[in-house]
Design goal:
With about 160 residues, the protein is an alpha+beta fold. It has a single domain, classed as Peptide methionine sulfoxide reductase (Metal Binding Protein, Guanine Nucleotide Exchange Factor, Chain A, Beta Complex). Helix content is about 15%, strand content about 25%. It has three helices and nine strands, in the order ααβββββββββα. Strands 3-4-8-7-6-5 form a six-stranded antiparallel β-sheet, with no helix packed on it. Strand 1 and strand 2 form a beta hairpin. The chain is globular and about 60 Å long. Bound molecules: zinc ion. Zinc ion binds next to loops.
Length: about 160
């Protein structure tokens, strides 16, 4: 119940943080085609095509290729750019920033810190406190609702007297 299970993907885990190093042909076998195109071929989904673009549930976003935790819903914001946007990754090691000079532009590519899947790009026009906008392809995100964590919090606090 705690983890998202993926059939045919032996490296997928929400808890294992060891680096994943698969050959391209192995990735091709374990990933759905749309995820493979973005994760490994650095594709970009059409803007406004992701169900996570305007999506405000509380929870955690994971890498759809390997299950690595990437972003928390409270760092997600409406950027209006057409892709799910966050101002801060879940931890310093959850993502990798790489200079990207493709398509005649100088940008910073964002990759998964565990499996190096292409996630999107980071820009300097985000909101405080970081001023960053992580513009991420929704296809490469798995979302898990924070209901278990919330339930636990409510149970712990329900008997406390209100002062
Ligand atoms: Zn990953």
């Amino acid at each position: 119940m705690d983890t998202i299970n993926k059939k045919n993907n032996p490296v997928y885990s929400n808890t294992d943080t060891s680096k994943v190093n698969l050959k391209e042909e192995e990735w091709k076998k374990v990933l759905p085609e749309d995820v493979y195109n973005i994760a490994r071929l650095k594709g970009t989904e059409r803007p406004w095509s992701s169900k996570y673009e305007s999506f405000n549930e509380k929870g955690t976003y994971y890498c759809a290729a390997c299950g690595n935790a990437l972003f928390k819903s409270d760092t997600k914001f409406e950027s209006g750019c057409g892709w799910p946007s966050f101002y801060e990754p879940i931890s310093k090691t959850s993502i990798i920033n790489t200079p990207d000079h493709s398509h005649g532009m100088t940008r910073t590519e964002v990759q998964c810190g565990r499996c190096k899947a292409h996630l999107g790009h980071v820009f300097n026009d985000g909101p405080p406190p970081t001023g960053l906008r992580y513009c991420i392809n929704g296809v490469i995100l798995d979302f898990e609702k924070a209901k278990d964590a919330e339930k636990k919090y409510n149970e712990e606090n329900k008997d406390k007297p209100v002062k």
